[in-house]
Amino acid sequence: MTDDDLKKNDVVRLDREEEEAAVEQAAKLAPKMLYEVIRRDGEEELSRSTRALVWSGIAAGIMISFSVLGEAIFRTYLADTPTRYLVENLGYSLGFLIVILSRMQLFTENTITTVLPVMHAPTPALIGRVARLWAIVLGANVVGAFAVAALYVYTPALPEELIPAMVELSEHAMGFAPAEAFFRAIPAGVLIAAIVWMMPQAETAGFFVIITFTWLIAAGDFTHIVAGSFEMAFLMVQGQLGIATALGSFFLPVLAGNIVGGTVIFSMMAYGQVRDEMDTEL
Residue 19: CA atoms inside 13 Å, Cβ hemisphere, count? Predict the structure, then answer.
């Protein structure tokens, strides 16, 4: 075999290696790898200090208000046409974009990220850590929601022309019967968990993943515990909603529905599709 033949064989081998690498890159992350990425992310979240969780959760509760504000801006300034509803719900994505891309602590994200480590190695201690994180983050989200609601009600921070739309949106969110609020919260929990599941592979498309799925939550008229907590707080601060109604008709049913959607349904499905592969590795 001549030197030229050897060089040609080397070129062919390199081309095949490059082709194989390209195929692997195109395949991106297998379900097992996605599971592992999110599980490790959950473990990191569980190891964060209380102070970090509190401040991150408060920030998320404040920033999620921009979802309702975005909807209110579109509703206020767009002409009242049959298509306005679909357009105004794009505003709902604004708060979620800030919170998710800034890596703030949003309770509904934790219904999948912190649960996967428990599914991987369930222990009483780990379950206790998850319960601790859930309580801290949810409480901090609500504190942030009330803080920004008080800002809008007691200061001129919110333009007066937006207030009627904010009240309309808030009253609608609080107007569901408890059973309806619960069942409408399940798809929202599934969709937020789906965003978390897709983000490691989405890369630059993550922006559009968040917009699409959160728009679907708003357009589908589903209920979300944190965004809804701002609407709840906005009415409560003004004395338009009592605490018993807020808890019984909105907060507790929606909280349960989001957990069912994000943990019981989506996390179980995510774990189910990789369980055999994980067992094989073990």
Answer: 6
Q: Provide the residue type at 22 as one letter.
A: A
Q: How far apart are CA 3 and CA 24, in angstroms?
A: 32
Distance from chain centroid for Cα 38: 13
Look up residue 205 and give its DSSP letter: G
Token pair belonging to 27: 């395949």
The single-letter code of the amino acid at 39 is R
What pTM was estimated for this model as a whole? 0.85
In Å, how far are 16, 19, 152, 164, 203 from 159, measured between CA atoms? 62, 57, 9, 10, 36
List pLDDT tens digits, range 114-166: 888 888 778 899 999 999 999 999 999 999 999 999 999 999 999 999 999 99
| Nearest alpha-carbon partner for 209 in 221, 199, 224 | 199
